[in-house]
Design a protein that fits this description.
Elements lengths: L3 H15 L4 E5 L5 E4 L1 H7 L3 H4 L13 H13 L4 E3 L5 E4 L5 E13 L2 E10 L1 H101 L3 H31 L8 E3 L1 H14 L9 E6 L5 E3 L1 H17 L6 E9 L2 E7 L7 H4 L21 H11 L3 E7 L3 E9 L2 H7 L1
Parallel strand pairs: 8-10
Antiparallel strand pairs: 1-2, 1-6, 3-5, 4-5, 5-6, 7-9, 10-11, 11-13, 12-13
Helix pairs in contact: 5-6, 6-10, 7-8, 8-10
Length: 425
């Protein structure tokens, strides 16, 4: 009979065995299962009754039975406390034949010269899954690291190649810069030489042309004593040709002065009466240039003082009115309007001449440019370019509206001092 105390210890042992949170399998010295706790039943899905007396290989995958049999015999000959599964994968077998990863700790005890082995079994399925995830992440990280290294290597090579190309390009650019600088200096010298030649030639031509014109006027006077229509006709042709030649020379002289920076701006205040007299007087000077039936109409709406460079304004208007007469047919009207709009002196010259195509309009203020429909009409292609430069000197601008065969309108804008306008108000 066991004492009450002995019974209590046995019950405690049974409770500890059956309710442990780890699978416990006890085998005898020949490898048969003699005890099997409840947690092991849950792990292996065998009941205790189903495994008692069976060889422990029942709980191991068939593929490792032979190896396990040898390991078991070796252990029984030299038993020791051992943890199995470190460094290698161990698998246990369930009742349905499926397997799961485990860690096994072995211990032993001896009763009456018989050795018994206790196997503590831990299901590490969750841990293995986590390890697999970690391994996969590590592999992906290593793969990403390799790819990044490869990309860095490629990028470094590309940077090296691009740097080499950039150095070569900079070398070529420096060479081109030097060549361009030399070409620019040569062009500058040539331009200055051309400008000096044009200025000199223009001055030299003016004297003989003035002589020719004076002689033509004298011949015309002598012809009045004994009129001859043929002589008169030729005199008019001479005067017209000389006048045209003088206009060309004036254009070249004006361009030369502009390019050399010799044209200075002298703004002065002109009264409304003075500006009207200036324009009216200028219009009268064109009477001898008008074609048959041509008329110039002037409409002035200025009633306040304005600030302008008198000479530059006169040259601008001479050019615009000359063009209007030149490109307008006989029996046509040229209209000049002057007014003040938004602190700007505004003067427009409108004709009903041959007009300018849209294609040519964008180049009209460039040097030596002539519209396609004006090729056969005398001119240098400098007039409007000079006009735009004169207006720039007065901080002004020019606008144009034109249609083929419907005429053109050129409008100039010269800004007025704000304080002056306000004082007038």
């Amino acid at each position: 009979m066991f004492s009450g105390k002995q019974i209590s210890n046995m019950e405690q042992f049974e409770a500890l065995f059956n309710y442990a949170t780890i699978g416990i399998v006890v085998t005898n010295d020949v490898g048969r299962i003699i005890n099997f706790n409840k947690f092991a039943e849950k792990q292996f899905e065998f009941t205790k009754e189903e495994v008692l007396g069976e060889m422990v290989e029942l709980l191991i995958p068939p593929s490792v039975h032979e190896k396990h049999h040898k390991y078991r015999e070796d252990y029984y000959h030299k038993p020791e406390v051992r943890v199995m599964g470190h460094g290698r994968d161990l698998f246990a077998r369930k009742k349905d034949g499926s397997t799961f990863p485990v860690e096994v700790s072995l211990s032993h005890y001896t009763i009456a010269d018989h050795t018994f082995v206790i196997a503590f079994v831990v299901d590490i399925t969750v841990r293995k899954k986590q390890e697999a995830v970690v391994l996969q992440q590590k592999q992906e990280l290593e793969k990403g690291t390799i790819e990044i290294k490869s990309m860095n290597s490629e990028l470094e090579q590309k940077i090296s190649d691009r740097t080499k190309m950039l150095r070569e390009a900079l070398g070529e650019l420096e060479k081109s810069k030097q060549e361009l600088s030399e070409a620019f200096e040569a062009e500058k010298e040539l331009s200055e030489l051309k400008s000096r030649f044009v200025t000199m030639a223009s001055h030299e031509f003016r004297t003989p042309l003035s002589t020719i014109l004076s002689s033509a006027y004298l011949v015309e006077k002598y012809n009045q004593l004994n009129p001859n229509d043929k002589i008169e006709k030729h005199m008019q042709r001479i005067k017209g040709a000389v006048g045209g030649m003088k206009g060309i020379l004036e254009d070249f002289l004006s361009l030369g002065k502009l390019e050399e920076g010799l044209v200075q701006t002298e703004m002065e205040k002109l009264s409304a009466v003075a500006i009207e007299e200036e324009v009216s007087s200028l219009i009268q000077e064109f009477d001898t240039m008008l074609k048959k039936g041509q008329k110039i109409y002037f409409n002035n709406s200025i009633d306040k003082d304005v600030w302008v460079d008198r000479n530059l304004l006169k040259n601008v208007l001479i050019n615009l009115i000359t063009n209007a007469i030149k490109f307008t047919n006989e029996n046509s009207a040229i209209t000049i309007l002057s007014l003040l709009i938004n602190d700007n002196l505004v003067i427009s010259v409108k004709d009903s001449g041959i007009g300018i195509s849209e294609e040519d309009q964008q180049h009209l203020f460039e040097r030596f440019f002539r519209a396609k429909n004006a090729i056969n009409i005398q001119g240098t292609g400098l007039g409007l370019h000079i006009v735009s430069k004169y207006l720039e000197l007065m901080n002004g601008r020019i606008e144009m509206r034109s249609k083929i065969n419907e005429g053109s309108t050129f409008t100039i804008y010269i800004p007025q001092p704000v304080q002056a306008s306000q004082k007038e108000l």
